[in-house]
Design a protein that fits this description.
The chain starts with a strand and ends in a 26-residue tail after the last helix. It is an alpha/beta fold. It has 14 helices and 18 strands. Bound molecules: dihydropyrimidine-2,4(1H,3H)-dione and zinc ion (ZN) (2 copies). One zinc ion binds next to loops.
Length: 512
């Protein structure tokens, strides 16, 4: 009997810290050997002149989800995971999204069922928490965290989702005591509302005014406030979809002062600008997301943030809506910038875009690319050891990249249901030609080889951001913060001395 089910032979293997020539041997879905000259296997892949990289982890994508504006996105767990796989991603962490009237256990059960039936690659969930009432804070949140949903997203804007600062503190306190990572959508709601109302009152309805209403100052202010709230509680925080120089500098400064703050950015903030929202007619709606694409100066700041570790996570924020009445244009030609669905597709092109413009264009090393698209996500979201690295004992999730393959992007070659791509016509260098998930070849010869429902739910552990041995212990955090969560109405400020004495330390994210 062969020692391996699969051997990938003669490739250049990359991790977040090194690149070396080796074969990779797989048995029962797990990497069991990394060395030159491995014995023959049932299935062999010739990877000479190819790069063997960890499968991507896309830790921010919206799948079969009702948005904050009440619009259903257009990809289900099948189409989204197929598209992800074709782009070299082997794990996704989308959202189980609570809206205010929904019970958290029902929300989680509903998303779990739909994903179980359809996903072709492995997946976890973050919870979106819109109603942090007593039941949510004291019963439901601790329960879902125990079930392996160890991160949650909260919003500082959107009428139907946003939490006020008092609620954010409640959530951060539970996150500290229960060891969950809070992700925050940081934009100042009242700035956006005030600007949008004034713009609309003056008849400015076109998509480009979305970028005017979502001023970078709104992002910078909310980013600073979110960091302040997390420092008050003494718990790490992750700011999602960071777009503007001001927010990036705020995060960098806070980190330099010792704050345990992490941040994510996405392709749209590297490859698009607000000018894309100013296209013919309503076509700008195709580029409308929140925060919006900014300008060249912010693009430069995003590249610098990816390079210096201020932005260690590169996700897609895939939020696909069609350019028609079901998504971008609910009122047809009369749709204002306030009414169009916010979000862009990107789950399939996230890695090829960064590979081409980052690695092949000489802005990032291959190791940095691996860290930004895979390893750092595993560390941040409790998957270290199982996902995000080509290492013995990890799930055999990798992609064989051809660094010389040239691809011109068209919507028709992609596998999501959006019907357009913001990156139409872009020329890319490098492509993931073979994609392996838990030892199964799921994409080869531009063909899918995975069954609907063959992806597995990932019960995630605690984020490395929270579990560092040098940080506060779980027991210490529980003891210190239980009191804050349960505190009565009176004199809450005086209780802040109960917060942990030391800030948790940062995980060893490999992109610095
Ligand atoms: N926030 C997201 O995270 N995704 C899409 C739109 C939004 O506001
Ligand atoms: Zn958001
Ligand atoms: Zn999102």
């Amino acid at each position: 009997m062969e020692e391996f089910d699969l051997v990938v032979r003669d490739g250049w293997v990359a991790t977040a810290s090194e690149v070396f020539a080796a074969d990779v041997g797989v048995r029962d879905g797990v990497i069991t050997a990394i060395a030159k000259g491995l014995l023959r296997a049932k299935r062999e892949i010739n990877a000479s002149e190819r790069w063997v990289l960890p499968g991507g982890i896309d830790s921010h994508c919206h799948v079969e989800q009702l948005s904050g504006m009440g619009i259903m996105c257009v990809d289900d767990f099948y189409s989204a995971t197929v598209a992800a796989a074709f782009g070299g991603t082997t794990t996704i962490i989308p959202f189980a999204a609570q809206h205010r009237e929904m019970k958290i256990p029902d929300v989680v059960a509903d998303y779990a069922k739909r994903a179980r039936e359809k996903a072709v690659i492995d997946y976890g969930f973050h919870l979106i928490l819109a109603n942090p009432d007593e039941t949510a804070l004291n019963i439901d949140l601790p329960a879902v965290i125990r079930e392996g949903i160890t991160s949650l997203k909260v919003y500082m804007t959107y009428d139907k989702l946003r939490l006020d600062d008092h609620q954010l503190l409640d959530v951060l306190a539970v996150a500290a005591s229960e060891q969950a990572l809070v992700m925050v959508h940081a934009e100042n709601h009242d700035i956006i509302r005030w600007l949008a109302n004034r713009l609309l009152a003056r008849g400015h309805k076109a998509p480009k005014f979305h970028a005017v209403a979502h001023d970078p100052i709104a992002e910078g202010e909310a980013t600073n406030r979110a960091i302040a709230l997390s420092r008050l509680i003494g718990v790490p925080l992750l700011i999602v979809h960071v777009s503007a120089r001001e927010a990036i500098e705020t995060i960098r400064n806070a980190k330099q002062r010792g704050a345990a703050v992490y941040a994510e950015t996405c392709p749209q903030y590297l490859f698009l600008t607000a000018d894309d929202l100013d296209r013919n007619g309503l076509e700008g709606a195709m580029y409308c997301c929140s925060p919006p694409p900014r300008d060249k100066d912010s693009q430069d700041a995003v590249w610098a943030g990816l390079k210096d570790g201020t932005l260690p996570i590169f996700s897609s924020d895939h939020a696909p809506y069609r350019f028609d009445k079901t998504g971008k244009l609910p009122k047809g030609d009369a749709t204002t910038f306030k009414e169009m669905a916010n979000g862009l597709p990107g789950i399939e092109l996230r890695m090829p875009l960064l590979f081409s413009e980052g690695v092949m264009a000489g802005r990032l090393s291959l190791q940095e690319f691996v860290a930004l698209t895979s390893t750092n996500h595993a560390s941040m979201y409790g998957l270290t050891g199982r996902k995000g690295a080509i290492t013995i004992g990890a799930d055999a999730d990798f992609a064989v990249w051809n660094p010389n393959r040239e691809v011109t992007v068209t919507a028709s070659m992609l596998h999501d249901n959006t019907g357009y791509t913001p990156y139409e016509g872009r020329k890319l260098k490098g492509w993931p030609e073979i994609v392996v998930s838990r030892g199964r070849v799921v994409v080869e010869n531009n063909t899918l080889h995975a069954e609907r429902g063959s992806g597995q739910f990932l019960k995630r552990g605690t984020s490395d951001a929270l579990s560092s041995p040098e940080g506060i212990s779980v027991a210490e955090a529980r003891e210190a913060l239980r009191g804050l969560v349960d505190v009565g109405m009176e004199d809450e400020r005086s209780q802040t001395s109960l917060r942990p004495r030391r800030s948790p330390t940062r995980p060893t994210l490999t992109c610095r």
